[in-house]
Amino acid sequence: MCGRFAFFLEIEPLVDDLAAVDLSDPALRARWNIAPTAPIYVVTESVEKGEDGERTGEIIRALRTARWGLLPPFAKDAAFSARTFNARRETLAEKPSFRGSLARYRAIIPISGYFEWQKDPLGGKTKQPHFISHPSGAPLYLAGLVSWWKVPGCHQGPAASSDGAWLLSATIITKEASGPLAAIHDRVPVMLTREKVDEYLDPAMDDKVEVQSWLLDDANSLTGEHLEIRPVGSAVGNTRSAGPELIDPVEPLF
Fold this sequence. Notes:
Number of domains: 1
Structural class: mainly beta
Order of helices and strands: EHEEEEEHEEEEEEEHHE
CATH architecture: Alpha-Beta Complex
Largest sheet: 5 strands, antiparallel
CATH class: Alpha Beta
CATH superfamily: SOS response associated peptidase-like
Shape: globular
Strand order of the largest sheet: 3-1-8-9-14
Helix content: 10-25%
CATH topology: hypothetical protein yedk fold
């Protein structure tokens, strides 16, 4: 799974590399302990519409701000997102919360790295947190889904539309772990190479069965062999903890 991550990437190089326009909230930059329901950055690709509502044919790729935890149209309130911050790739086309976004509302979640907790192999209650990232500091591009949710009343948060009527929400897609990451946890986020980002976001792939087959193909995602797995301190378990010291390496507990 992926339930906590860090983002301290430089925005300008990120949007330049992705050939995206920056439509995100400028107040949200470096954060080292991002938890579900918090605002996060997502990259979407869509066909622009004209003033008459008709599609112009121009494809717009944008960095946006979304609430972490997908809100499908049938969600009664924003609290629903606390249950939908991750989505299993194996069941995307079946789950009502996610299948509506699979064909048309895909996104990439760029992160600096994510945290995962390893259970004590001897059965103790203590867990060892790890920070998992690219050793070069390059972004990790996580496959995700987004949904525009019609907000009751007017929403003023960073993930809201300019008129406050809609809220953009997102989920991170996960898969079964393999390689060295499997020793930490049995699930990992679906991580894409820069080249696969373009394939995944392409609006021309608009059949949900095709998209799920693409996600199930391990050739389209990273396995984790070349990532850095760093034991870190327990402070990250507290959502009120913040700061770059959360990713400092420590001696492992086991």
